[in-house]
Amino acid sequence: MAFGKEKVKILDGPTPLEYLARASEDLGIRLYMKRDDLTPLGNGGNKLRKLEYSVKEALDQGATRILTVGGVQTNHGRLTAAAAAKFGFNCTILTFGRYPGEVSANLLLDRILGADVIIEEPQALTDSVLRAKAEEYSKKYEAQGESVYFLTLGGSDETGMLGYYDCAVELTDQAKELGIEDARVVTTAGSMGTYMGLYFGLKNEASPLSLTGIAIMPFDETKIDDANGQLQRAIAQYGFDFDATWEDLNIETDYSHGSYNNPVKEVRDAILYMARMEGILLDPCYTGKSFAGLMRMIEEGKIEKGEKIIFMHTGGMPGLYTKHHREAFEEELMDGIQIV
Ligand SMILES: Cc1ncc(COP(=O)(O)O)c(C=O)c1O
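A: This is the predicted complex of the input protein with pyridoxal-5'-phosphate.
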């Protein structure tokens, strides 16, 4: 519970905060990983923390269906489908993008979890487009007697954000136990709910931890306006006694490789690095890209040698099976497969 808002229980308790010895030694930093990929439902990931709050709101509103939006391979959609199943809702994932030509990765898991998936032509995912489209479909369901709870892109609204406010408190306690109170938390920045929750949580609770986001898509003027809107709405709703704008945030925007969810050699290399050093699987759209960014930040001296870093593993592993990523990997990894 935060700010008087209640949540349902999806997580079993704090997720592990692990020291990664081999990667630390090799990279010359003290690298810890917050294992939010190990959250319980639907193959795990960051969205479950947000969903604990959003699902409670949907239950309180008497909804029968949760309708959410995203890209065709949205992890958020998959985890919404899992939470919807557990709490007895129908679920629709309204996606924007091209059908990949096969039912694989998150798309496959969405259907296994019982969600209805709609794929619309790609278009700019601005807040107003998403709301108008969601309303159009909600009306259809409501005409059939359903009551629809709309969950915004990535679950990144003021309600969902509280999941990462709680995580900031959890991390502060864990860091204290490990004697790394002055560590820097590094997280992937997409629809920004994770970053925002951590930002407000760390700041409002006066945590000594610092925070850096790594953008995995270009952050243009629209995206910055969105971020400012998120900040202002949260400040107004929760009555924080400080103001904040985009300039107060610490988001690295140099490592997005020009697009969202694109196949990038450097990102694949970062995924192989983590897999082969620590046996941990990152994903090509989010955590692999941000970890590749983190490695560059070390090279460029933006992260200092010996610095204590807590990298947020926010999940996303099914993304490895997405057609275009899988094919790029297949080409590079065939040399280690002997067919006799
Ligand atoms: C695996 C994974 N990591 C990170 C993110 C980014 O989180 P946020 O959208 O809260 O910025 C997402 C968002 O979909 C995700 O699926």
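The CA atoms of residues 60 and 83 lie 15 Å apart. Strands lie at 17-19, 30-35, 65-71, 90-96, 116-120, 148-151, 184-189, 210-215, 251-252, 308-313.
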